[in-house]
Design goal:
The protein has 3 helices and 2 strands, in the order αββαα. The chain has 97 residues and is mainly alpha-helical. The chain has a two-stranded antiparallel ribbon.
């Protein structure tokens, strides 16, 4: 007998009761929160405004959001969220490969 597998996909709302941030909060933190670049090539939240490399990366993400939000408003009546921005950045990265 062949084994059967199942996959479940849940939105961020499933963790609302745990106090985890929702999509809008994540997007706001991504675009407007303070971030700092770390030596491990990742960005971490900061209590200070973003500077240097983190500020440049954040500005790039703001530009992406500004360009894709009008399309999403027109077709889906919503602004870009962090998943949309990530998807756009991936498309750009794959063009350069």
């Amino acid at each position: 007998m062949a084994s059967t597998r199942a996959a479940f996909f849940f939105g961020s709302g499933i963790s609302r009761d745990s106090g985890a941030p929702m999509v809008d909060e994540l997007g706001d933190a991504l675009l407007n929160g303070g971030w700092e670049a770390h030596s491990d090539l990742r960005f971490y939240p900061s209590k200070s405004p973003s500077t240097g490399e983190a500020e440049r990366a954040q500005e790039f993400l703001r530009i992406l959001a500004a360009h894709i939000s009008p399309h999403l408003r027109n077709h889906e009546e919503r602004d870009a969220n962090y998943e949309d921005i990530y998807g756009a950045a991936l498309q750009i990265a794959s063009i350069r490969s």
